[in-house]
Structure formats: C-alpha cells, structure tokens
Amino acid sequence: xxxxxxxxxxxxxxxxxxxxxxxxxxxxxxxxxxxxxxxxxxxxxxxxxxxxxxxxxxxxxxxxxxxxxxxxxxxxxxxxxxxxxxxxxxxxxxxxxxxxxx
Length: 102
What we know:
Oligomer: single chain
Structural class: alpha+beta
Number of strands: 5
C-alpha cells in the first residue's frame, strides 16, 4: 500500500488542479466609480483598464468588455465584468459592472 501512496497523492493533486482555472484578463476596479456616462472618454478607459478582453459593436456603437473569472474545485467561483458602450464621439454612453470579488 505504501507503494501506491505517492501515486494516489499525485492523482488527487491532478484532480484538484484540473478543477481550477480562469478566463478573461484581470483588470483593476479602482477607477470604476470615476466612470461617468456622457463624460468619460474611450482614451480614459484605455488608460485606466488597458485593452479590453472583448470588443464588439451594438447598433453601430463600440462596446468593450473587461472580464475575469476564476473557477475552483474547492471554494467559490469568482468573477467580475465591466461592459462599456461608447457613442459615436468615443464617450461612454452607458456601462455595467458586476462582481463578487471586490
């Protein structure tokens, strides 16, 4: 049985690590209270948060998504997401932030 202890330990560690992971790119949330619709510019957002994890359009307006998710076999999954919609003048039209991390 002692011969199998290292094998069983390695198998257990592999199973635990296989149940852990992340997706997206972590981003700082300190500037989120500073975002103001109709005021904050696209360049300010880029300075504060870096390049968006996903970019797209909605009704012709640019939409940037910052997202970070962590998954764990042990403990609670964590996520945070910031979605920003810009108008034609590259100013924030609207944004949404949700997180169970901060």
